[in-house]
Specification:
four-stranded parallel β-sheet, 17 strands, 36% helix, binds guanine, TIM Barrel, alpha/beta, binds fe (iii) ion, 2 domains, Urease, subunit C, domain 1, guanine deaminase activity
C-alpha cells in the first residue's frame, strides 16, 4: 500500500492514562497505514490529498482485546453457576473438543470473527484449541477479514479429559508444524505460544514450549493466579516452586519473549515483583472475574508495581465481547475494590481504562492503540447521534456516554493498519 489520505472528525484518544487527548474537528494524515500527522489543520504539503470527512462523528483508536477464547464463543452466557475448575470440566472442555471438526470450527470461527469486526475489536490475542488445523483456519479467517491478532494453538498434556488431551511429543511436534505454517499470514496475524495453564501442562511440555517460543521468536500467553482452588492445585503439582509465577519462570515461559498472563488476581508481592522484572503484561478480565467468582484483581496495586495492564473479554468466562463494555466494567469493579475491600486502591478513571483497552494492549503489537505520529492507523468511527440527548456535550462526555450506553450499531467505520474494513462473511 502506497497511499496518503486524510481523515477528519472529532478525534479522541489516550496517549497516556492520565487524560484524553481531544481534537474537535481535527485531521489525521495516514501514510502507508501509519499516522503521519494528527492535529487541528491540514499541513500545507498534504492539502491535495483526499479527505474522508466524518463530520461530527467521533474517531477513536480501535479496541484491543488481549484475552479471549475463540472456541468458547457459543458458550457465552452459559454455565455461570460454577467456579473455574468445575466450569472448565462441565462446559468448556466439551465445547473445545468439537474443534477437531473443521466444519464446526468454520461455522463458529467465522461468526466470532464477524463479531470482533462488529464490535470494533481491531486487534486481539486469542486462544484456539489443541487442534492445529482449526487454529490455522481461525488465523486465515482473521487475515481475510483484515483484522489483526495473535492466535495460539493451545497445549494440554495432563489433567485433561481423554477427549481433549495431547501426548507430550505430539503436542510439541504439532506446535512446531503450526509455527511453520503460521508464517504464511504475515504481519497482522501472528502465532503466540499458548500453554493453557500450569495444571494442564507437564514440566517437559512447558520447557519445550519455552524453547520453541525463543527459537521462533514468538510471544507467549497463558493464565495465572485466577482462582484459589487453581492456585492450591499448582502448589501441590509443583511443591518445590515458591509460587505459581515461579513455575512459569522456571520453565522459561516468562522473562524471555513478550508475555501476557490473564487474570493475576491473587499474586503475592514477590510475584508482582517477578511480573515487573520480566516485563510480563497482565490481561485483566473483569467480566470473567465476576462471572466465575474468581475475585477482584488489585489493578491499582499492579500498576503501582510498574506492571503493564491491558484488558480482555475472556470469552466465555466473560460473556461480553464489547471492549467498550469490558472497559466500563473494569472501572466499576475497581470502584467495588475501593469501596468494599481497601480504600487505598484508588478506583480506575475512565481515561485509564480506555488507555488499557487501546494503547495499553496495543503495545503488545508495536505502535498500536493511539493516534500519535508513527502509530498504525487503527480507528473506529462512532456516530453517537442516536443516543438521545438534547444537551450540548463535550467530545469527552459524548465518548463516555457511548462507552456506557452505546453499542455496535453506532460504529460506522473500522480501520486496521490504514485499511477500511468491509464486514467479513459468515460461513453458511
Ligand atoms: N484457565 C485455564 N483455562 C481457562 C479458560 O478457558 N478460561 C479461563 N477463564 N481460565 C482458564
Ligand atoms: Fe481465559
Amino acid at each position: 500500500m502506497n497511499s496518503v489520505y486524510i481523515v477528519k472528525g472529532n478525534i479522541i484518544y489516550t496517549s497516556r492514562p492520565a487524560e484524553f487527548a481531544v481534537i474537535p474537528n481535527g485531521y489525521m494524515i495516514v501514510r502507508d497505514g501509519r499516522i503521519a500527522y494528527c492535529g487541528e489543520s491540514i499541513p500545507s504539503e498534504f492539502e491535495s490529498y483526499p479527505v474522508e470527512d466524518y463530520g461530527d462523528n467521533l474517531i477513536i483508536p480501535g479496541f484491543v482485546d488481549t484475552h479471549a477464547h475463540a472456541p468458547q464463543f457459543c458458550n457465552r452466557g452459559l454455565g455461570m453457576d460454577k467456579e473455574l475448575l468445575p466450569w472448565l470440566e462441565t462446559y468448556t472442555f466439551p465445547e473445545e473438543a468439537k474443534f477437531s471438526d473443521l466444519d464446526y470450527a468454520k461455522t463458529v470461527y467465522s461468526a466470532f470473527v464477524n463479531e470482533l469486526w462488529r464490535y470494533g475489536t481491531t486487534r486481539s490475542i486469542l486462544f484456539g484449541t489443541i487442534h492445529k488445523e482449526s487454529t490455522l483456519l481461525l488465523m486465515r479467517l482473521l487475515s481475510e477479514a483484515g483484522l489483526s491478532a495473535f492466535v495460539g494453538k493451545v497445549n494440554m498434556d495432563r489433567n485433561s479429559p481423554d477427549y481433549l488431551i495431547e501426548d507430550t511429543d505430539q503436542s510439541l511436534h504439532d506446535t512446531r508444524v503450526w509455527l511453520e505454517e503460521a508464517r504464511q499470514f504475515g504481519p497482522l496475524v501472528r502465532p503466540i505460544v499458548t500453554p493453557r495453564f500450569v495444571p494442564s501442562c507437564t514440566s517437559r511440555l512447558m520447557s519445550g514450549l519455552g524453547d520453541l517460543a525463543v527459537e521462533y521468536n514468538v510471544p507467549i500467553q497463558s493464565h495465572l493466579s485466577e482462582n484459589h482452588g487453581e492456585i492450591e492445585w499448582v502448589h501441590s503439582l509443583h511443591p518445590d516452586s515458591s509460587s505459581y509465577t515461579d513455575v512459569y519462570c522456571e520453565h522459561r515461559l516468562m522473562g524471555t519473549v513478550p508475555t501476557v498472563m490473564a487474570h493475576c488476581i491473587h499474586l503475592s508481592d514477590e510475584e508482582m515483583e517477578r511480573m515487573h522484572e520480566t516485563k510480563t503484561m497482565v490481561a485483566h478480565c473483569p467480566y470473567s472475574n465476576v462471572n466465575l467468582s474468581s475475585g477482584i484483581a488489585p489493578i491499582r496495586k499492579l500498576l503501582n508495581h510498574g506492571i503493564s495492564i491491558a484488558l480482555g473479554s475472556d470469552i466465555s468466562g466473560g460473556h461480553d465481547i464489547s471492549m467498550a463494555k469490558v472497559l466500563t466494567e473494569a472501572v466499576g469493579l475497581s470502584k467495588m475494590k475501593w469501596a468494599e475491600v481497601d480504600a487505598s486502591y484508588a478506583s480506575l478513571t475512565l481515561p485509564e481504562a480506555f488507555y488499557m483497552a487501546t494503547k495499553g494492549g496495543g503495545q503488545f503489537f508495536g505502535d498500536v492503540g493511539s493516534f500519535e505520529t508513527g502509530y498504525e492507523f487503527d480507528a473506529l468511527v462512532i456516530d453517537d447521534h442516536e443516543l438521545f440527548d438534547p444537551n450540548e456535550r463535550s467530545i469527552e462526555e459524548r465518548l463516555e456516554r457511548w462507552l456506557y450506553i452505546g453499542d455496535d450499531r453506532h460504529i460506522v467505520g473500522r480501520y486496521v493498519a490504514g485499511k477500511l474494513l468491509d464486514e467479513p462473511p459468515m460461513a453458511m
